[in-house]
């Protein structure tokens, strides 16, 4: 099956990055969000990224304009009625994602593949609310999308080999590296990464060290490019909490319980870089 038209749902950190790399690879992209201001924020990020590429001589002004020309605004999910692929990147919440997939199943053409950028939620459970579970798949991009090479491709229980192959080929067209994984909570990336971040938060919570010290230990001692608390701020503390809850619920193992400090920050609206404050404070 050939993919030309794509809809990306959610113009946040991940959705805007996914829309950008798809348009850069020559696909026509509808970028969907619930409100004009959310779309505008996503488009603003894309424009800024592309302008930086022009400034650094990585692309010409006319290439930038051509990429922006392939991006269309969508504030209505019914715009999915003529696309070949939908990549959902709305918030990490099963109820919200299932409601989106139910609607997409009735709106998108019969041949269309429905993909989710979920960090941890079971693809099989998303597929189960549609009448096309064999065409539902996970495409887990990494943050920031234009920079990071990996895409975890997650097969749901019913995903066909044809659909898997189409998505693997498409991922390569985005100049990304697909890695096949099976459908278990957190897949591979967040099964390993998120408990480490949660443990770093416990280390802060228990007063073992300051946030700067915890980050320094992991940067200087383990050669991580950024410390776990900084990384949590970049991912979004709400997303980190959703992922820990998915691991905790999915495995029923207390080793995955989210740190109370993480819950407290999320309740306070300290969501990390995107809200201006998380473990650290960010200029707007
Ligand atoms: N942040 C990360 O590092 C990261 C990495 C990989 C995957 N993910 C996953 O990507 C998804 C999005 O994460 P994010 O960090 O971009 O979040 P975000 O909060 O930056 O963006 C989410 C966007 O989705 C929009 N949205 C919510 N409900 C919607 C709906 N019904 N229809 C259309 N738009 C809707 C919101 O308005 C917002 O703009 C989550 O599933 C997350 O787990 C995140």
TrEMBL record:
PROSITE patterns: 3HCDH
Pfam families reported in the protein's UniProt record: 3HCDH, 3HCDH_N
Signal sequence interval, chain numbering: none
Domain 3-hydroxyacyl-CoA dehydrogenase NAD binding residue range list: 5-183
InterPro entries listed in its UniProt record: 3-OHacyl-CoA_DH (IPR022694), 3-OHacyl-CoA_DH_CS (IPR006180), 3-OHacyl-CoA_DH_NAD-bd (IPR006176), 3HC_DH_C (IPR006108), 6-PGluconate_DH-like_C_sf (IPR008927), 6PGD_dom2 (IPR013328), NAD(P)-bd_dom_sf (IPR036291)
Key words of the record: NAD, Oxidoreductase
EC number: 1.1.1.157
Record-annotated site: Important for catalytic activity: 140
Source organism superkingdom: Bacteria
Sequence ranges assigned to domain 3-hydroxyacyl-CoA dehydrogenase C-terminal in this UniProt record: 186-282
Gene Ontology biological process: butyrate metabolic process
Pathway(s) per entry: Lipid metabolism; butanoate metabolism
UniProt-annotated binding residues for NAD(+): 10-15, 33, 92, 97, 119, 143, 274
An example Gene Ontology molecular-function term: 3-hydroxybutyryl-CoA dehydrogenase activity
Record family assignment: Belongs to the 3-hydroxyacyl-CoA dehydrogenase family.
Protein name: 3-hydroxybutyryl-CoA dehydrogenase
Source organism: Viridibacillus arvi
Source taxonomy: Bacteria, Bacillati, Bacillota, Bacilli, Bacillales
């Amino acid at each position: 099956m050939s993919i030309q038209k794509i809809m990306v749902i959610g113009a946040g950190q991940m959705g805007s990055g996914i829309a950008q790399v798809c348009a850069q690879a020559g696909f026509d992209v509808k970028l969907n969000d619930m409100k004009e201001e959310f779309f505008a924020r996503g488009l603003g990020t894309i424009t800024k990224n592309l302008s930086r590429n022009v400034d650094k001589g990585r692309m010409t002004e006319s290439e930038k304009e051509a990429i922006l020309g392939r991006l269309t605004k969508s504030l209505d999910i019914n715009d999915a009625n003529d696309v070949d692929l939908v990549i959902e990147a709305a918030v990490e919440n099963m109820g919200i994602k299932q409601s989106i997939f139910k609607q997409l199943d009735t709106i998108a053409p019969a041949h269309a593949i429905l993909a989710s950028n979920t960090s941890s939620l079971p693809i099989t459970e998303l597929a189960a609310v549609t009448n096309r579970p064999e065409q539902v798949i996970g495409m887990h991009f990494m943050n920031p999308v234009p920079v990071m090479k990996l895409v975890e491709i997650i097969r749901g229980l019913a995903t066909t080999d044809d659909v898997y192959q189409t998505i693997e080929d498409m991922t390569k067209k985005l100049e990304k590296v697909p890695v096949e994984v099976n459908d278990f909570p957190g897949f591979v990336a967040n099964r390993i990464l998120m408990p480490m971040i949660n443990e770093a938060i416990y280390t802060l919570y228990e007063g073992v060290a300051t946030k700067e010290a915890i980050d320094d230990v992991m940067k200087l001692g383990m050669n991580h490019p950024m410390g776990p608390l900084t990384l949590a701020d970049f991912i979004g503390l709400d997303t980190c909490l959703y992922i820990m809850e998915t691991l905790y619920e999915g495995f029923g193992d207390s080793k995955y319980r989210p740190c109370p400090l993480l819950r407290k920050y999320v309740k306070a609206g300290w969501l990390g870089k995107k809200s201006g404050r998380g473990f650290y404070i960010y200029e707007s």
